[in-house]
# Entry
Amino acid sequence: MSFRADESQGSVLVVTAHPDDEVLGCGATIAKLSKSRDIHILILGEGITSRYVSRDNTNKAELERISESARAAAAALGTRSIRFEKLPDNRFDEVSLLDIVKRVETAIGEVRPESIYTHHPGDLNIDHRITFQAVLTASRPLAGSCVRELYTFEVPSSTEWSFQQLHPIFKPNVFVDVSETISEKIRTMAYYEGESRPFPHPRSSEALRIIAQRWGIAVGLEYAEAFELVRSIR
# Structure
């Protein structure tokens, strides 16, 4: 499936490992940016088969359900397009890195994004770490590259659960004021039925608001989403 992309300047590509990572990592920022920029989402993995002993045991209806949830979430956040690669959940290390890089390169070639948002490499989840590596490789700053900015985000219940034992440690240096869109992020998570958890789980609606409030307090805002800038070419 191809992106419904155009050549408008300033488009954004969000690359995640699993459905719901886009909402957890930068949902409020997507909602804010989509008011003025074209946002495209690339989800590399199918997101659920690690719950089963074998991928062959996976309920196909459940796979379709989570894809539909992702489509509904993307529409609610105002994105222009979403694409699925359906790589094996929590088994990205069994896939050739080159194959993953090529998929990201294809998306970049179609969308021509100025900015990319993706996972931080110091994350507990193996798929998140490999996604970052693939994006970093696919967006390398060759002459004529469209990608001018590369940001990484944290994913609650994953990034912080590395307990700073995996390096590099997430050290945000860019903060987006999401005071007007934090509620959109929390409402959008409801499309992922079964992925949210009761408080005090990090993916609970209360915790997501607290996390945004924490980053907001750090920089004098009511609510903020935090990112680590990897590269900016100006």
User: Anything to note?
Assistant: Strands lie at 12-16, 39-45, 81-87, 115-119, 149-153, 174-177, 224-232. The CA atoms of residues 101 and 137 lie 7 Å apart. Confidence is low (pLDDT under 50) at residues 1-8.
